[in-house]
């Protein structure tokens, strides 16, 4: 470990890539550290489809979190290939790689991420999450041994993103490995994502939560209107794109009830996020086979990974 005293007077700023297979708790971890929701979470895997930059600032450092989409073995659909490429590219040019695993479950997908990580450059930190679920905390030890045998980590933390266990210690460690430098973003920024993007993500989150197992990621959301009127009311029109008409019917629900509930839930969080009264309109449209068409994906804004 580096002696922290030598850093005392200098401000640090840099990038931390958050890596891990879907559903291990990456978004929960980032949201907890930032103290606000910037990345959507759900019980189903693969909700993080976009790279979200979360920004943490305190008196001595600014951490720029790059939240990566899941890495998968199954690359059959374009959208999966796209997500894999995005995840790999976010490993390059960062100061610290933060590998998040679920302390209760190790899978082939974890193995795949670990394999990619072992070839990457930069400081590496392992966060073994969901330890709150283990009756006997020592159960994580063989898990940690298995992982660290395959890849050298500069620090290892068992903890819980949901309960905030060990996150202060993690943050302190991440900060000390950032290069010296001034703030990249103003101190009150928590993301560089646009308000439109945040609005779309909120709708998508409510959609996923409401649909249970039915439509994992064959739907997407476009924001067609995002406008304040002269009374300060924000009008947002969201277009939900699905692959088949059956899916459209499911989303709309009996007598439009499900769509109404999705809209109500999204609107409440939007009002808090944008600090304004919100009028939200939602539409559902069928766009056949969009997930298999990489060009269509790009036209929908999935081309912003560098
Ligand atoms: N018990 C427990 N559950 C957790 C913890 N961290 C996350 N979860 C739950 O695990 C599920 C997945 O969490 P996410 O943060 O969405 O996972 P993710 O890795 O960002 O997933 P993708 O977006 O699919 O890549 C959610 O239901 C979380 O509430 C934890 O520390 N303890």
UniProtKB/TrEMBL annotation:
Q: Name one GO cellular component term.
A: plasma membrane
Start and end residues of each KH type-2 domain = 203-288
**Taking every annotated instance into account, which residue ranges of this chain make up the domain Era-type G?**
12-180
The reply to whether Mitochondrion figures as a keyword in the UniProt entry is no
* A Pfam family: KH_2
Show the segment(s) annotated as G1.
20-27
Membrane topology type: Peripheral membrane protein
Under InterPro entries, the record lists: G_ERA_dom, GTP-bd, GTPase_Era-like, KH_dom-like_a/b, KH_dom_type_2, KH_sf_prok-type, P-loop_NTPase, Small_GTP-bd
* Gene3D superfamilies assigned to the protein according to its UniProt record, in alphabetical order: 3.30.300.20, P-loop containing nucleotide triphosphate hydrolases (3.40.50.300)
Q: Which intervals of the chain are annotated as region G5?
A: 159-161
For the ligand (GTP), the binding residues are 20-27, 67-71, 129-132
Question: Where does this one sit in the cell?
Answer: Cytoplasm; Cell membrane
| Region (G2), start-end ranges | 46-50
What segment(s) does the record annotate as region G3?
67-70
**Mind listing the GO molecular function terms for this protein?**
GTP binding; GTPase activity; ribosomal small subunit binding; small ribosomal subunit rRNA binding
- How does this chain assemble? Monomer.
What is the similarity comment for this entry? Belongs to the TRAFAC class TrmE-Era-EngA-EngB-Septin-like GTPase superfamily. Era GTPase family.
| Record function comment | An essential GTPase that binds both GDP and GTP, with rapid nucleotide exchange. Plays a role in 16S rRNA processing and 30S ribosomal subunit biogenesis and possibly also in cell cycle regulation and energy metabolism.
Name the record gives this protein:
GTPase Era
